[in-house]
Design brief:
The protein is of the alpha/beta class. The protein is 40% helix and 12% strand. It has 32 helices and 20 strands. The strands form 5 sheets. Strands 1, 2, 3, 4, 5, 6, 7, 8 and 9 form a 9-stranded parallel β-sheet that branches. A 3-stranded parallel β-sheet has the order 17-10-18, with helices on one face. α3 crosses α12 and α20 crosses α28. The chain is globular. 54% of the residues are buried.
Length: 830
């Protein structure tokens, strides 16, 4: 927030060099458009030093020195319909695409509350409502949905949902519905303590010229967007806005955009943060072949934004749109806010760019000398001056979440209503508009406009309500409830999988992911040299690793106990051999059983074994080597497996040492429904303690095929298991992987519509000793996985083992003057 609209003092006469201009800025001069354009061409290291000093001065003045803020949020994509046609956007759908995805035109209140309550349980205080601009003005399907449910417009529905979120959960809403008229801004102010809309650019060329990014998008008229920001200031609304770098704009455009936003803030003092966002090309868009924003230009624009707005404005960048190694450069360039980051939901606008883990973001921030603090959706200056900036109706909810500084309180209030009662009319009593259809909309999940699940006409409506409660508050169900869901058949199973798929869609998002990897079964290691199929020595391991990298693999998965005759040091030597041959490959190695073997036979103890694995180069560990967390089941099915208590002790210790892992459940044999539920609950408890599980894989045991429900088809056994896994682990373990090697590709596609989001790995056999991989002969080439995702109308993304994108930046940034800024390895855990 600026300090007001007082006219800047005339700067003393000085020279015309960049150093002179920066000195004047440091003394309080506010650069004009021409000077801002000059600054955008200045050496990056000089700009960053000046911007960093100015940022630090502002934080001192704000009373929170060396504190960088973020908002812990859930991302709610209320509708993906839009009347605009931006050439870089992957967020929007057409009605035809929604039908193919079996996705509603608008999220229902219950679907929204399901996501919001999960986020609340994870400490989120902000619900970000993002949607397309005025879809009802382009799509009859949107108009029909609004009419059917009693809403005059999309903005009207936004206001209703915002009111419901705060009434039901106490969380605060940041509304981001695009272009708004003054009456719409006024309608949202009592339910949304802050709002936002990116300016993006003032370039009329990009809006008016055919083929440019905003051509054909009426809501991207720069003059219109500036008017909305101005109207928000006149209405006294804390407002988030910013620019987009790399969409075809010129340096002059960037300068003019920054100055235009500063002028509006001078007029009203309402701009609470300026986002400087870098363009990242997305597949299936008109700009998919365009280069990403140049990193040098992006950093320069961040620094210049700080110089233009001065010390008191919050300058924000989205951390997921940059590589973790670039975060230090952004801090150096003068930012003081990371924006909204979610521990639960994907960035639905940039689904190919996962959020950083918040503890990793805190560690990266600390590594560069700053402390990460959680704020509310309205920034502290506006919270402290609530009488001016926050509608009276929101004073109590804001106070409940704020601390004395206006930042987020450490403890989240827990006095929200019991999950599952969102259909009560008392939650809506203060809504001045007659909602004749709202109660049925809440209780039915709003699926009247979505294509009906198979067989749903005969489903017991109770199963959907039970499933929706499971999605919203999984710990509120008892074992009998979960058992009922696991036993669902026919239309009830269709309802269950539909709810689970919604839970997947509105948390981790639409992408189907895959890692390029190869298996190496360590049981086959023979230091003395191979003598039989499936065996290999350390030289072979190096050749296998090199070959895997040549095939495109980013991971080698190594597991299996060494034979008793092999030195247990072989576990570590094998990893070292792989890392020497392929330094950049991710080594996903050693089940708890293997770790205990190294610990016991190697005389290292558990802690020593884990430390030695880390030092040797192990990156993550498989959470396999267990069927069901039940000694009864282990004794009957796999008595050679590690004892259950020992498995839990080992995986927990691995997590606490810094390793992340997978988790699994083998089903379809002697286990009961109750034992499956107990297994999933135990995984949640471990996750609560360690946050170490990256994914869960429900795996049918080979040769089992024992159904929980007599006569139920195998595919329905799998659908029920995947759906219940998604719901019971929701808000705890984000990703549910479909074991395509066990169920086949065709069934895998069905299970991806039952709550799954990941396909595991390619499992390349390789050209060097392919028989050393435990699943030799089963490969999923990338093109085949892409086709599978495309058949579901879902995007496909290659990932790393730790669910990051696979591209990596250059190891340094070179300034225009030839100075190289190294990309620091901050060491944050994946």
């Amino acid at each position: 927030m600026s300090t007001g609209s007082a006219a800047p003092q005339a700067a003393p006469a000085r020279g015309d060099s960049i150093d002179d201009l920066l000195a004047r800025v440091r003394d309080g001069h506010r650069p004009d458009v021409n000077e801002t354009e000059r600054l955008l061409h200045a050496p990056l290291d000089v700009l960053s030093r000046a911007a960093g000093r100015l940022r630090d001065e502002g934080l001192e003045r704000a009373g929170r020195p060396r504190v960088i803020t973020y908002s812990r949020k859930v991302f709610v994509p209320l509708t993906t319909l839009c009347r605009d046609r931006c050439h870089y956007c992957i967020f929007v759908d057409t009605p035809g695409q929604l039908a193919l995805l079996r996705k509603p035109a608008y999220m229902s209140p219950e679907q929204v509350l399901t996501v919001v309550r999960q986020g609340q349980a994870l400490g989120c205080k902000e619900a970000l409502l993002t949607l397309g601009d005025r879809p009802e003005e382009r799509w009859p399907e949107a108009r029909a949905w609004l009419d059917e449910h009693g809403f005059a417009s999309t903005i009207d529905y936004v206001a209703h949902i915002a009111r419901l979120i705060t009434a039901e959960t106490g969380m605060l809403v940041h509304a981001n519905p695009g272009v708004m008229h003054p009456d719409e801004l006024a309608a949202l102010r009592p339910v949304s303590p802050s709002m936002g809309m990116m300016l993006e650019t003032t370039s009329r060329r990009l809006y008016e010229e055919p083929g440019q990014v905003h051509f054909g998008s009426p809501d991207k008229d720069p003059d219109l967007r500036l008017r909305v920001i101005d109207d928000a200031g006149a209405a006294g609304i804390p407002f988030t806005t910013g620019i987009l770098v790399g969409i075809g704009e010129t340096f002059r455009d960037r300068a003019e955009s920054l100055i235009a936003l500063r002028d509006l803030d001078d007029r009203h003092g309402h701009v609470q943060e300026v986002i400087v966002q870098n363009f990242r090309a997305k597949p299936r868009t008109a700009m998919q072949g365009a280069p990403d924003a140049d990193m040098h230009e992006y950093l320069a624009t961040v620094a210049v934004a700080r110089l233009v707005f001065g010390p008191d404005m919050r300058i924000q960048v989205p951390p997921n749109l940059s590589d973790p190694r670039e975060l230090g450069l952004l801090i150096a360039a003068g930012i003081d806010d990371w924006g909204g980051v979610s521990p639960l939901t994907a960035d639905h606008v940039n689904p190919e760019r996962p959020w950083p883990h918040i503890d990793d973001l805190a560690a990266s921030t600390a590594a560069h000398g700053y402390t990460l603090r959680d704020r509310l959706t309205a920034h502290p200056e506006f919270v402290r001056d609530a009488e001016t900036w926050i509608d009276l109706a929101l004073h109590a909810p804001v106070r409940a979440l704020a601390d004395a500084e206006g930042l987020a309180a450490e403890v989240v209030p827990s006095d929200h209503r019991v999950p599952g009662d969102a259909g009560r009319t008392d939650a809506l009593d203060d809504d001045p508009i007659d909602r004749t259809a709202t109660s049925s909309l809440v209780t039915t999940g709003g699926r009247a406009d979505a294509s009906a699940p198979r067989g749903s006409t005969t489903a017991d409506p109770g199963i959907r309500r039970l499933a929706e409660t499971a999605a919203s508050a999984p710990l509120s169900l008892d074992d009998a409830d979960w058992t009922r869901l696991l036993h669902a058949t026919g239309a009830e199973l269709d309802e269950l999988t539909a709810v689970a798929d919604d839970a997947r869609r509105y948390t981790v998002g639409e992408p189907v992911t895959l890692v390029q990897n190869r298996n190496l079964t360590s049981t086959g290691l023979r230091r003395a040299g191979r003598t039989a199929p499936g065996e290999f020595d350390l030289d072979d391991a190096a050749a296998i690793a090199t070959d895997a990298v040549d095939l495109g693999a980013t991971e080698i998965c190594i597991q299996g106990a060494l034979p008793a005759g092999e030195d247990p040091a072989g576990y570590l030597d094998l990893v070292r051999a792989v890392k020497r041959a392929a330094p950049g490959i991710h080594v996903h190695a050693y089940r708890p059983l293997d770790v205990r073997d190294l610990a016991d036979r190697g005389g290292l103890g558990l802690g020593g074994a884990l430390a030695a694995m880390h030092h040797a180069g192990v990156d993550t560990v498989p959470g396999t080597g267990v069927k069901v967390l039940s000694e009864r089941v282990r004794a009957l099915v796999a008595p050679g497996d590690l004892e259950i208590d020992a498995w839990i002790e080992t995986i927990t210790a691995a997590h606490l040492t810094g390793f992340r892992s997978t988790s699994v459940l083998f089903y379809g044999h002697v286990e009961t429904a109750g034992e499956r539920i107990a297994h999933l609950r135990r995984l949640r408890r471990i996750q609560d303690q360690t946050r170490g599980f990256a994914e869960f894989v429900p795996i049918p045991l080979p040769g089992g095929d024992v159904p929980l429900v007599a006569g139920r088809a195998p595919i329905d056994e799998h659908r029920a298991m995947v759906a219940v896994s998604r719901l019971l682990l929701s808000g705890s373990i984000a990703h549910v992987q479909i074991p395509w090697t066990r169920v086949g590709r065709e069934t895998a596609a069905v299970l991806l519509r039952s709550g799954g989001d990941d396909l595991g790995g390619t499992l390349y056999d390789g050209r060097v000793l392919p028989d050393t991989g435990i699943e030799q002969g089963l490969e999923l080439p990338v093109p085949a996985a892409e086709r599978l995702a495309r058949s579901l109308m879902r995007p496909f993304r290659l990932r790393t083992t730790d669910y990051r994108v696979t591209d990596a930046p250059a190891p340094y940034i070179e300034t225009s003057g030839g100075t190289r800024f190294p990309l620091p390895a901050d060491g944050a855990r994946a």
